[in-house]
Design a protein that fits this description.
Structural class: alpha/beta
Helix content: 25-40%
Radius of gyration: 23 Å
Distance between the termini: 30 Å
Strand order of the largest sheet: 11-10-9-8-12-6-13-16-15
Largest sheet: 9 strands, mixed
Order of helices and strands: HEEHEHEHEHHEEHEHEEEHEHEEEE
Number of strands: 16
Shape: elongated
Strand content: 15-25%
Length: about 350
Amino acid sequence: MTIHEIYMQQCIQLALKGFGSVAPNPMVGCVIVSDGNIIGEGYHQQYGQAHAEVNAINSVKNKELLLKSTLYVNLEPCSHFGKTPPCADLIIENKIPKVVIGSRDINSIVNGLGIKKLREAGINVTVGVSEDDCKKLNKRFFTFHNKKRPYIILKWAQTADGFIDLKRSEENPGKAMQISNPESQKLVHQWRGQEQAIIVGTNTALLDNPKLTARQSQGKNPLRISIDKWLRLPKQHHLFDKSTPTLIFTAADEPSETFLEYIKIDFEKAIIPQILNELFNRSIQSLIVEGGEQLLNSFIELGAWDEARVFISDKKIEKGINAPVLKTKPISKENISNDKLLTFLP
């Protein structure tokens, strides 16, 4: 590993501290080195607040050292005025002679312009250090800008014999079966607090009455989403409690309220692309698809997924609703108490 790669890995570790707090901005970490010593570091801590480069430069006690320093950052410094001034301008103002960048920022308002501005100011700029790691760090950000949709995580729990639930109906709703164990459930709540949105289908919302919150974790609640073509869901269900922003995609004309918004779509056309387009327009960069069977299979058939997280318990029910099937092998396996967590990529 080169010295550049060592410092870039430090940038990545710093950037991860902002996970779940900076979206729709990317996670960014910055390290400033002078004569082989780290003299400053920082990361983007909260959306709308100072960027990593600003925090790193501000952390340097002796600003004279900046004149002979190298600034490392995992993503190209911004060149435009957004919620904060351009980081490229701040680097130039502080006369930092060398900048090492992990990956370009593919956002159209940046994409090479920050690098261009730095080079035109006479700064020695190196690009592409640990680039794959830097892109993996911000896979949600890159997927959003490349595919014009959120990064999609499929999630479900299934029994050892391959079912995700007992067969239930609106007439015979029964009680939702708890397949995964409490430790797995806590992990799911942690994921909810890290991602921007979560969606369930009509039947899941109707029969399970889920809250879809991150109540067992430290994170903030995701945007809750469900599909309800003809407004069948009871208004006393948790999705309508207005405790956190919620979207309902429907064919009906229904007025929106605070924290409860109805989005009319055309059910004669493919539903999922319409939903993903709406989320893209709202700058939602990540989405958990949490069920049920029909919705999960719809995403799978469309090829609209980037990651799948599947819990397999040791319980057996012999008959029920079949779990979705992925035509790929898991990239990782993890034991969580008596559950197995498998992770898949397309």
